[in-house]
Fold Aminotransferase class I/classII large domain-containing protein.
Amino acid sequence: MPTTSGSFVAEWAKAQKPRGPSVRNSSVFYRNLEAELDARRIKHGCMSLHTIPPGASDFASADTLGLGFSGLLRAEFMEELARNPDSWLGACGTRLAFGNTTYLETLECEVADFHGAETAMITVNGGQANGAIFTAIPRPGDAIVYDEFIHATVHDGMKNSLALVKRSFRHNNVESFVETLSEIRASQPLISDGQRCVIVALEGIYSMDGDTPPLRELVAAAKEVFPEGNVQFYIDEAHSNGTLGPKGAGLVCALGLEKEVAIRMVSCPKALAAHGGIILCNNTVKTMILNESRSIMFSGAPSFHMLAAIRAGYNLMKTGKTQEAQLRVEHLVNLFMERLTSDPVWDRANDAMILRVPLWDLDEEAQPFATHICPILTRPNTKHHLYLTFHLQLAGFIVYPVFFPIVPKGTERVRLIFHASHNDAEIEALAACICAWAEEMLSIDQEGGDGIRLPKAARQAYTMIETADLN
Ligand SMILES: Cc1ncc(COP(=O)(O)O)c(C=O)c1O
């Protein structure tokens, strides 16, 4: 009988053990697949599923406000189910055919109202929403200008887009943004004439970096380069929904820029601890998406239980029940940084590039929000991000390594996500555990030599590869 998976380190180790020899007598179909996987395993780059051990400290899930952990969302969801006892569980059709309901439309009106948008469109997930937006909205002759760190699902959407030009600009860099817009203005007569548009794609909080875009400056710059007003903004608020702005309404609401941003996207498995995607836009954009997006036209509509969970989450946000959690997260991030940077090892580890938090080097003007996502950068182009992950995981902290191609080469990191449900002692223990690892890495550095001594947790993980039982 198949078995369920275990903890991250055990499953990681099992996943790196080459399997080619065991499929020598299988069909070429399986041998070819295993050969490709073995190429990843040899480089220790094979990903695998794992489960979370009970009692572990979660610094990885997106349940930032603790709505899932605390049971608050479940309680509100059960009430929502009780209020709607006759609802069908599944959607049983596409949105355009049988899958539309009054419940879904009412919820869209409520959500749009909460975010100060004209309308909303709920999708099965945020990835589908991004796919739908970028397939349907940029029209032939339009251009897309995107921050180089924009999410993978926006890239997937852009691949199917009809836009004539797609150009990235340097992350959060207004100068680079202006240069990119100016190049488009110079090379695209229909856009400079104001007949075609530029769609700018940004995130509210960048998922791997935890920083926010200088949105006001970007909007002002766009107006300067294109006074005809044919630049429109798209903001992926996956990570800023629930965590920034009044009652968690997101970055755009925090800055009062609702009128300046044509499309926003909210992904519900994040702070809402639910499931689904929400497109905030006007009726023109919504109608275009319904007519042009194949992933909406040919896929089932959101199911009732998904919508009920979203409504439960919004009920909590609307009534201000999540605001305290928003503030608590800010306190925890500040506490963590204070503990980390006041530890005696910090300066030495920082100088030796063993630990860095570039986000905290920015001044308040460049980074006005202390967000729940905190990337700890490790020594570039090494396996330190893996070593730190092993060290923390084996100590009971759930964190994951982030590496190329998810982030650029040389910026490997461990991403921490802070939750309102953490207590101060957990945060202090996490900072102390990271510092103990840094001390160990410094002592390995000092030994010099051939540099092959591994830190203790990594030795343990590598031994697990040798002893992994693949059956
Ligand atoms: C910034 C961002 N956008 C979009 C998505 C996709 O959302 P979903 O998980 O709802 O498909 C994610 C998911 O991780 C994300 O981080």
In short: Residues 17 and 193 are 59 Å apart (CA to CA). The first strand starts at residue 57 and ends at 58.
